[in-house]
Design goal:
CATH superfamily of the domain at 2-93: Ribosomal protein S6/Translation elongation factor EF1B
Strand content: 25-35%
Helix content: 25-40%
Shape: globular
Distance between the termini: 57 Å
CATH topology of the domain at 2-93: Alpha-Beta Plaits
Strand order of the largest sheet: 2-3-1-4
Structural class: alpha+beta
CATH class of the domain at 2-93: Alpha Beta
Oligomer: single chain
Length: 146
């Protein structure tokens, strides 16, 4: 299962019980199709960037959930025909990447299993270079030096 985030903009003129019913319907659709709800966050009423159906404000809600792809398709299909929803957007949340040190350690273990010897990982020390800065290069931009 993958993690998704649903941004839901509901009409500001509907009653609170209908707002809750719409959110319950959306979360129930996810759960009934094999997903699970991680978090539901109401953001409240906010001004829209442009009018939608002559509305200048919307009631924003964020729902974070884990679900298979068919559950997301089912959710989007039900939100398209919901009158209370002015706009919705479901985005996939990427899992955080492994840290560089952890990734390097896992590469070393994989390489050792294959019998391959990898070079040592870079250290925090300054690399030894034999590069000499030509004085003519510093004359090209004297203002940057001063």
């Amino acid at each position: 299962m993958r993690r998704y985030e649903l941004m839901l903009v509901l009409r500001p003129d509907i009653a609170d019980d209908r707002v809750q019913a719409t959110l319950d319907r959306a979360t129930r659709t996810v759960v009934d199709n094999g997903g699970q709800i991680v978090k539901v966050s109401p953001w409240g009423r906010r001004r829209l960037a442009y009018p939608i159906d002559s509305q200048r404000e919307g009631s924003y809600h964020i729902v974070v959930f884990d679900a298979p792809a068919p559950a997301v398709e089912q959710l989007e299909g039900s939100l398209r025909i919901t009158e209370e929803a002015m706009r919705h957007l479901v985005t996939r949340i990427e899992k955080p990447a492994a840290s560089a040190r952890g990734a390097a350690a896992s590469e070393e273990t994989d390489a050792e299993a294959d019998g391959v010897v990898l070079p040592a990982p870079p250290t925090d020390e300054e690399p030894e270079t034999d590069e000499v800065i030509d004085e003519s290069e510093s004359e090209a931009a004297p203002a940057a030096i001063e």
